[in-house]
């Protein structure tokens, strides 16, 4: 009797656990799987989210899309590491920090280069007319970001070193305030912060990223999820490509979509979208080489604690 009672209780408990499972029930009583996607407002996934086409595509596969917003790439990568999301988009440097911290992820695709919107800004009428003039100046940028890499490569191109400037580590928003108040001499940043500073402050773009950085987007996935859901990852990338094609061919509608989301004026958004191409590239040797150079530079500067081989986490 005791064994029968124990078994009966086990059946009841198991039934309760199943009924309380986090799976999502569809209208026909079946269950749906979920793909949890991390995005940032200033990135290609916000376009896909707003258009809503991925949800339509995955519904037939029995998948539901759960969107999770992040303010910055490092936080998104940490969520991937903590198994809080399955897929996301970030810039070119957070994956390098994640790999150096042994995070379980794969880079499954890359975005197109957007070097034109990344650069070094100086104030209108500034005495800084060339890269050489940055010597001894206060230059702001986000530490460990694509802008950090850009300023290092730009300085080295004219024989200067990192120690020749006074670095001021600030997020784009705080950097803009310091720049406007004259607390810094130059600001290294990316669009639409670059375009907004140019249009609303009359700042001059000393150099853009051409020849220094490609400043690509990267699409990353939790390693286990990527292994078990190749087909779903492929569908997501296909829909990103389709939404990118729409964005490239509908600048007017894109500007009106993004301006209120990012909370930046339409003129600045228009400048930003006109000097970039949205899209998806497969991982290739050139992209691997670009990332390896960033990783090697950050290791040389003691920004990451160990030397890494980026190819180990790039799915080609």
TrEMBL record:
Q: Read off the lineage from the record.
A: Bacteria, Bacillati, Bacillota, Bacilli, Bacillales
The UniProt entry, under CDD domains, shows:
PBP2_SsuA (cd13557)
Please provide, alphabetically and separated by semicolons, the GO molecular function terms listed in this UniProt record.
Answer: ATPase-coupled transmembrane transporter activity
Gene source species: Oceanobacillus zhaokaii
Q: Which InterPro entries does the record associate with it?
A: ABC_SsuA_sub-bd (IPR010067), Solute-binding_3/MltF_N (IPR001638), SsuA/THI5 (IPR015168)
Name the UniProt key words of this record, in alphabetical order: Lipoprotein, Palmitate, Signal, Transport
Q: Name one Pfam family in it.
A: NMT1
Instruction: Name the family the entry cites.
Output: Belongs to the bacterial solute-binding protein SsuA/TauA family.
The superkingdom listed in its UniProt entry is: Bacteria
Question: Residue limits of the Solute-binding protein family 3/N-terminal domain?
Answer: 34-250
Q: Which SMART domains match?
A: PBPb
**SUPFAM superfamilies under this entry?**
Periplasmic binding protein-like II
User: What name does the UniProt record give this protein?
Assistant: Putative aliphatic sulfonates-binding protein
**Database matches in PANTHER family:** ALIPHATIC SULFONATES-BINDING PROTEIN-RELATED
Q: Which residues form the signal peptide?
A: 1-25
Chief subcellular location equals: periplasm
Q: Which GO terms describe its cellular component?
A: membrane; periplasmic space
Cell location? Periplasm
> What the protein does?
Part of a binding-protein-dependent transport system for aliphatic sulfonates. Putative binding protein.
């Amino acid at each position: 009797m005791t064994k029968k009672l124990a078994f009966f209780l086990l059946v009841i408990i198991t039934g309760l656990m199943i009924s309380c499972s986090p799976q999502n029930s569809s209208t026909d009583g079946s269950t749906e799987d979920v793909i949890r996607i991390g995005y940032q407002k200033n990135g290609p996934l916000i376009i896909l989210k707003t258009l809503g086409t991925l949800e339509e595509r995955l519904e037939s596969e029995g998948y539901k899309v759960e969107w999770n917003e992040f303010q910055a790439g490092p936080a998104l990568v940490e969520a991937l590491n903590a198994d809080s999301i399955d897929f996301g988009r970030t810039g070119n440097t957070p994956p390098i920090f994640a790999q150096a911290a042994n995070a379980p992820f794969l880079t499954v695709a890359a975005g197109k280069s957007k070097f034109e919107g990344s650069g070094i800004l100086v104030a209108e009428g500034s005495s800084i007319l060339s890269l050489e003039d940055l010597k001894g100046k206060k230059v702001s940028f986000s530490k460990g970001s694509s802008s950090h890499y850009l300023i290092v490569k730009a300085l080295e191109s004219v024989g200067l070193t990192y120690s020749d400037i006074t670095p001021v580590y600030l997020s784009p928003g705080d950097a803009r305030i310091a720049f406007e108040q004259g607390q810094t001499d130059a600001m290294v940043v990316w669009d639409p912060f670059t375009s907004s500073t140019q249009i609303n402050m009359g700042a001059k773009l000393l150099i853009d990223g051409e020849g220094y950085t490609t400043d690509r987007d990267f699409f990353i996935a939790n390693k286990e999820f990527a292994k078990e859901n190749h087909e779903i990852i492929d569908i997501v990338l296909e829909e990103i490509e389709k939404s990118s094609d729409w964005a490239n061919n509908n600048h007017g509608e894109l500007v009106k979509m993004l301006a209120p989301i990012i909370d930046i004026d339409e003129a600045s958004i228009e400048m930003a979208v006109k000097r970039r191409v949205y899209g998806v590239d497969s991982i290739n040797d050139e992209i691997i080489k670009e990332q390896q150079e960033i990783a090697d530079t950050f290791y040389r500067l003691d920004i990451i604690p160990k030397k890494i081989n980026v190819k180990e986490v790039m799915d080609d």
